[in-house]
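ARCHIVE CARD
CATEGORY: sequence design from structure
SOURCE FIELD: tokenized fold
FIELD CONTENT:
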């Protein structure tokens, strides 16, 4: 395969017609030489989407479960996006910033910056709702919470000792999973759901249309990978 700055380029999916081309060896090489990119591939896709087209086309032409599994692993390790860490400072009588926007899978880190001990406690009107609770103080300077998939889009929280003084914050969760990606209904978004999308490729009416846009294509695969894990 031809590599460009750590990315897999589209040339790795196209047969190379050249007198200097060496014969393909093994099923991987033969498969790569026999496979073309889908004709609808836009000319200027970002690298990650180009990689999806490349690997999905290879997956669709793989003849054995072992071939599909190997390509599937390559797809996942090449294209999974990384979660972010959001830092909230706790000092005085305020959270800074007081409002943040996160995605499921992101980590929120509350960090002690001085003064009295504080808490990061989920709930509105100074009442704990059971979602998360942690203390930040000199003896315990940070508290971290990973945003799960099944949370409300708006999460209020507060500091127990200082809530009456207005020490509150709000977390806005963007892209909460509705679990349409769980095609097989097992409570998990995983390999079988991804294979269901690939098997239904190009259809318009199927449960594999996880983003409900009327087409089963690379957008549905991107949604599957984004939603990967438990519902």
């Amino acid at each position: 395969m031809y590599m460009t700055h750590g990315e897999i380029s589209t040339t790795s999916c196209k047969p190379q017609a050249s007198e200097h081309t060496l014969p393909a060896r093994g099923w991987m090489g033969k498969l790569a030489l026999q496979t073309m990119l889908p004709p609808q591939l836009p000319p200027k896709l970002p690298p990650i989407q180009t990689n999806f087209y490349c690997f999905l086309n290879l997956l669709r032409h793989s003849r054995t479960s072992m071939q599909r599994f190997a390509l599937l692993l390559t797809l996942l390790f090449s294209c999974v996006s990384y979660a972010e860490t959001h830092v909230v400072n706790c000092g005085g009588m305020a959270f800074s910033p007081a409002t943040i926007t996160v995605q499921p899978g992101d980590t929120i880190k509350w960090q002690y910056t001085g003064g009295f001990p504080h808490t990061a406690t989920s709930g509105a009107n100074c009442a704990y709702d059971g979602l998360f609770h942690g203390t930040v103080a000199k003896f315990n300077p940070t508290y971290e919470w990973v945003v799960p998939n099944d949370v409300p889009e708006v999460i209020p929280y507060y500091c127990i000792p200082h809530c009456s003084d207005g020490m509150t914050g709000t977390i806005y969760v963007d892209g909460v999973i509705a679990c349409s990606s769980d095609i097989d209904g097992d409570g998990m978004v995983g390999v079988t759901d991804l294979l269901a999308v690939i098997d239904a490729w190009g259809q318009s009416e199927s449960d594999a249309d996880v983003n409900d846009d009327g087409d089963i294509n690379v957008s549905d695969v991107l949604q599957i990978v984004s939603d990967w894990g438990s519902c």
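CARD ANNOTATION: Helices lie at 26-34, 47-61, 65-79, 191-199, 218-226. The chain has a mean pLDDT of 74.
SHELF: design records, drawer C
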